[in-house]
């Protein structure tokens, strides 16, 4: 599953390589609007007459992609790193299937780690109560919650999470790397 996702991640990184250099931030509205300059993107890559990529860029999914990934200051992820920093590696792997497969497996491993940051934590199943258990007299009432103790536990959790490695903490916003300009890329 993760390897298939990694292959698609590479495919979209190759398709949209350099897209950030064709984004325009329009600030005349109350909320800034991000516009993608399709003609510049296709022209600089020499793909003006490419029917497939033109249809992809005109689709609603790409419009959502631009609005979600267009802001210059947001949480970055694996796709951003792939688009910005792995250009040369992807080019070098085009004629070498073993290297390409190795890279796909590395990406799949990163996708797995992103979804399972703490694989050692096991979840315990809670058994269902037996039939008629609610009728038993010896069940003690639920204890009252000690508000002070709850606050202490919350504070302990916060201090632990601030000392945790970056992978387990929530996404922090940063400046999205622009990557190389579109003019570097030619598609085959």
Task: Write a structural description.
It is a single chain. By secondary structure, this protein is mostly helical. The protein has a domain at 1-116 and 171-184. Helices cover 48% and strands 7% of the residues. The chain has 8 helices and 4 strands; from the N terminus they run H-E-E-H-H-H-E-H-H-H-H-E. It has helices at residues 2-15, 38-45, 51-58, 60-69, 78-85, 87-93, 97-115, 147-162; strands at 23-26, 33-36, 73-75, 173-175. It has a two-stranded antiparallel ribbon with strand order 1-2. The chain has a two-stranded antiparallel sheet with strand order 3-4. The longest helix is centred in the middle third of the chain and has 19 residues, at 97-115. The chain is elongated and about 80 Å long. The mean pLDDT is 80. InterPro entries: dDENN_dom (IPR005112), DENN_Domain_GEFs (IPR051696), Tripartite_DENN (IPR037516). Residues 1-76 form the UDENN domain. One of its GO terms (molecular function) is guanyl-nucleotide exchange factor activity.
Low-confidence stretches: none
Tell me the Rg in angstroms.
24 Å
Helix content: 40-55%
β-sheet strand percentage: 5-15%
Termini gap? 27 Å
Mean pLDDT score: 80
Protein name: MTMRD protein
Organism: Pandion haliaetus (Osprey)
Domain UDENN: 1-76
InterPro entries: dDENN_dom, DENN_Domain_GEFs, Tripartite_DENN
Primary descriptors:
188 residues; dDENN_dom; 7% strand; MTMRD protein; two-stranded antiparallel ribbon; Tripartite_DENN; 8 helices; DENN_Domain_GEFs; single chain; elongated; mainly alpha
